[in-house]
Amino acid sequence: MSDDLLGERNMSRIVPETLSITAEQLHEYVAAKQCLRNCEACGANTWEFPSMNGVPALFTMASARDVSFATWTFHFNCLNCGNTRFIGAGFVWSYFFEKGKKA
Ligand SMILES: [Zn+2]
Predict the structure, then answer these.
(1) Distance 13 CA to ligand 1 centre (A)
(2) Is 51 helix (H, G, I), strand (E, B) or coil?
(3) Quick one: CA dihedral 49, 52, 56, 58, positive or negative?
(4) Among the four 17, 56, 67, 73, which has the fewest Cβ within 10 Å?
(5) Nearest-CA neighbor of 54 among 19, 29, 93, 28?
């Protein structure tokens, strides 16, 4: 994802498109990217993401330098030990909406 993508023109698309990402799409993304391998903390392979009203919960992490800047993430919890993995929502958005899907 390039910096140009975060221009004002694209932000009007990125926000609603990111909010539209479904649980099925998030499952598709992590399967395609193979990014939910065994937990590095405990070795289990039972991951779950929190959802709200049937869609994956989105979290923000604000910058301490400028609270008007925040990154959006989906996160997955290891159901055995609670280890948490963050997946940048922009990468998921890019996979589904930027020039089609990428392997
Ligand atoms: Zn674990």
Answers:
(1) 35
(2) strand
(3) negative
(4) 67
(5) 19
Instruction: Summarize pLDDT for 31-70 with one digit per residue, the tens.
Output: 999 999 999 999 999 999 999 888 999 999 999 999 888 8
Arithmetic mean of pLDDT over the chain: 89
Residue whose C-alpha is closest to residue 13's, from 103, 101, 99? 99
Distance 34 CA to ligand 1 centre (A): 17
Q: Please tell me the distance between residue 19's alpha carbon and the centre of ligand 1 in angstroms.
A: 28
| Burial class of residue 28 (count of CB atoms within 10 Å of its CB; 0-12, 13-18, 19+) | middle
Q: How far is the CA of 38 from the centre of ligand 1 (A)?
A: 8
Whole-model pTM: value is 0.83
- 20 CA → ligand 1 middle, Å: 29
Strand bridging mode 51-52 / 47-48: unpaired
Tell me the CA–centroid distance for residue 48 and ligand 1, in Å: 11
